[in-house]
């Protein structure tokens, strides 16, 4: 590992990044692309949020049928980022998807038809109402609408391949960073024997333990997800096979009705996700499993078996905006966090924005700047 001792004048790294979840991984690639020297520290098992994520990229808020926050800006940056990363890591990570929103009744259908005519939504909501094209397998009589320009990122694969890449580059320390090992100097930081200009915490929900950033107003949410495999034995799957490759359960479609049913290949689907603000742990629960089964059984008519159940804690925030920026008193302590339920869409855009800020080319957006929450009694500008 490249590091310098205390006699060196120039820190070996521009940035030490704590955490190789979705946020830390995207930010590290972004900074490396800009020629920055980065050291990543992640033990691998401290939290599992990114590893269990379904990776959906959904441009619509279904409750009100409005565009997701900043989607027109986020979308092209995300597409560009994941496309570039696929080239760099030599593997497919992003797949375009159609989101098939199953209507619960006529009111929902009429509301969809009205919204699909709005100028700003035409890129995302198809105005054509779909009839159930797979009645043997899907319970739906009210029809469905399709969301265009959606997608799915294989987050786990992206993290695993990135980890290998960082290892090959010799820029990954596989350990848990203890805060007591960090020495904060006026213009640099030292972690064990590693000197850097700045340290960026990308620790997901673990930031609640961070002595410099534990004041950030997270609204953590436990999420559970199951993986199911359609049971073909004892069921006339042959009559379904055509529909499985082209219908609503095909590998391009994600069904939405309260839950999502998202394909991962080989008749296997991720089904999720729950939202629990009380039981903040990463242990799969019977309650979460039953909730998902209940919702799934209202949609699916095909026998299935559950082959996995996972849980994670989303680093969601009170005002649903990312938490990015500089500690008000120690300007070499930074944070890149708060991706909440939408890390896949948010991380590439805000990593690029933050990198621009760190290069002195952009001014940090007030909407995501952590200083919007800094206690009023303490004055600081951060950058
Ligand atoms: C069930 C579920 C489904 C989801 N589905 C989607 C989806 O479809 N689409 C979407 O966009 N988002 C989804 N999300 C949300 C998404 O997972 C999050 O936005 C994102 O993963 C947050 O990433 P993060 O890197 O900030 O945090 P984390 O994933 O928690 O990563 C933090 C990393 O930091 C490491 N770490 C923490 N502290 C230390 C330390 N002291 N030393 C070393 N390492 C440390 C941890 O080990 C971890 O690797 C889902 C979440 C859940 C739970």
Summarize the structure.
The chain is α/β, with parallel strands linked by helices. It has two domains: 13-51 and 157-215 and 319-372, FAD/NAD(P)-binding domain (3-Layer(bba) Sandwich), CATH 3.50.50; 86-151 and 221-314, D-Amino Acid Oxidase, subunit A, domain 2 (D-Amino Acid Oxidase, Chain A, domain 2).
Secondary structure tally, helices:
8
Secondary structure category: alpha/beta
State the CATH topology of the largest domain. Answer: D-Amino Acid Oxidase, Chain A, domain 2
Estimate nothing, just give the exact number of structural domains. Answer: 2
Name the assembly state: single chain
Using the CA coordinates, give the radius of gyration. Answer: 22 Å
Secondary-structure element pattern, one letter each: EHEHEEEHEHEHEEEEEHEEEHEEEH
Q: Helicity, in percent?
A: 25-40%
Name given to the CATH homologous superfamily of the largest domain: D-Amino Acid Oxidase, subunit A, domain 2
Low-confidence stretches: 1-8, 377-383
Strand count: 18
Mean pLDDT: 91
Shape: globular
Main pleated-sheet profile: 8 strands, mixed
Give the distance, in angstroms, between the N- and C-terminal Cα atoms.
30 Å
């Amino acid at each position: 590992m490249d590091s310098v001792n205390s006699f060196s004048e120039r820190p070996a790294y521009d940035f030490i990044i704590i955490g190789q979840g979705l946020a830390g991984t995207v930010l590290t690639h972004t900074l490396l692309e800009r020629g920055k020297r980065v050291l990543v520290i992640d033990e691998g098992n401290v939290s599992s949020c990114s590893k269990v994520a379904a990776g959906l990229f959904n441009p619509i808020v279904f409750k009100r049928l409005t565009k997701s926050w900043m989607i027109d800006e986020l979308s092209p940056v995300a597409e560009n980022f994941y496309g570039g990363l696929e080239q760099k890591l030599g593997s497919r990570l992003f797949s375009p998807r159609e989101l098939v929103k199953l209507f619960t009744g006529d009111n929902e259908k009429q509301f969809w038809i009205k919204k699909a005519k709005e100028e700003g939504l035409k890129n995302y909501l198809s105005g054509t109402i779909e009839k159930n094209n797979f009645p043997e397998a899907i319970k739906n009589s009210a029809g469905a609408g399709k969301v265009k320009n959606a997608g799915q990122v294989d987050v786990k694969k992206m993290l695993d391949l990135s980890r290998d890449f960082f290892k090959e580059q010799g820029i990954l320390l596989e350990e848990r960073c203890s805060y007591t090992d960090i020495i904060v100097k006026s213009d640099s930081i030292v972690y064990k024997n590693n000197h850097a200009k700045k340290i960026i915490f990308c620790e997901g929900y673990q930031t609640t333990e961070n002595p410099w950033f534990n004041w950030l107003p997270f609204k953590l949410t436990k999420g559970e997800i199951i993986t199911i495999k359609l049971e073909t034995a004892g069921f006339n799957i042959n009559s379904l096979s055509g529909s499985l490759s082209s219908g609503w359960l095909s590998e391009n479609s994600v069904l939405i009705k309260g839950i999502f049913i998202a394909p991962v290949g080989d008749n296997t689907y991720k089904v999720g996700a729950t939202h629990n603000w009380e039981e903040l742990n990463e242990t799969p629960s019977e309650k979460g499993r039953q909730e998902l089964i209940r919702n799934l059984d209202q949609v699916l008519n095909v026998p299935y078996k559950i082959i996995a159940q996972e849980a994670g804690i989303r680093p969601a925030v009170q005002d649903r905006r990312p938490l990015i920026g500089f500690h008000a008193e120690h300007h070499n302590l930074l944070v890149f966090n708060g991706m909440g339920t939408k890390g896949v869409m948010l991380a590439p855009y805000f990593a690029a924005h933050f990198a621009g800020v760190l290069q002195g080319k952009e001014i940090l957006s007030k909407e995501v700047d952590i200083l919007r929450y800094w206690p009023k009694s303490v004055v600081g500008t951060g950058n």
